[in-house]
Amino acid sequence: MSQLALIFGSLFGGLAIILGAFGAHLLKKKLTSEQLQSFETGVKYQMYHAIVLLLLGFHLDISATINAYIVYSFIIGTILFSFSIYGLVLSSANNKKLKFLGPITPLGGLFLVAGWVLLLFKFLI
């Protein structure tokens, strides 16, 4: 489980840098300020959870089931939350908004919250 956390933490961190630069330089002229702010929110949350996954990956006891749930919650939540925002913003900028992505963003947020609640629970038991 720690290996999975480290792999996705590294992947999410690297992609956050690439996507942040992409948004700041290439999309700045194409997106409205509101769209750019949404895109940046996706990048920020992706980076926050990349760092958390890396920290967990270095400190997890791989035999505990709760650790798997925490890691899966953060991975699934980051993918659903951040990448649905990217899809919504980019499709909207091209006047072909993928509306089906709208409900996916809060679902991703729920997974992220679940990961944090599970982490708190882990600390309390």
UniProtKB/TrEMBL annotation:
<dbReference type="InterPro" id="IPR006696">
    <property type="entry name" value="DUF423"/>
</dbReference>
<keyword id="KW-0812">Transmembrane</keyword>
<keyword id="KW-1133">Transmembrane helix</keyword>
<dbReference type="Pfam" id="PF04241">
    <property type="entry name" value="DUF423"/>
</dbReference>
<dbReference type="GO" id="GO:0005886">
    <property type="term" value="C:plasma membrane"/>
</dbReference>
<comment type="similarity">
    <text>Belongs to the UPF0382 family.</text>
</comment>
<protein>
    <recommendedName>
        <fullName>DUF423 domain-containing protein</fullName>
    </recommendedName>
</protein>
<feature type="transmembrane region" description="Helical">
    <location>
        <begin position="47"/>
        <end position="62"/>
    </location>
</feature>
<keyword id="KW-0472">Membrane</keyword>
<feature type="transmembrane region" description="Helical">
    <location>
        <begin position="100"/>
        <end position="121"/>
    </location>
</feature>
<feature type="transmembrane region" description="Helical">
    <location>
        <begin position="69"/>
        <end position="88"/>
    </location>
</feature>
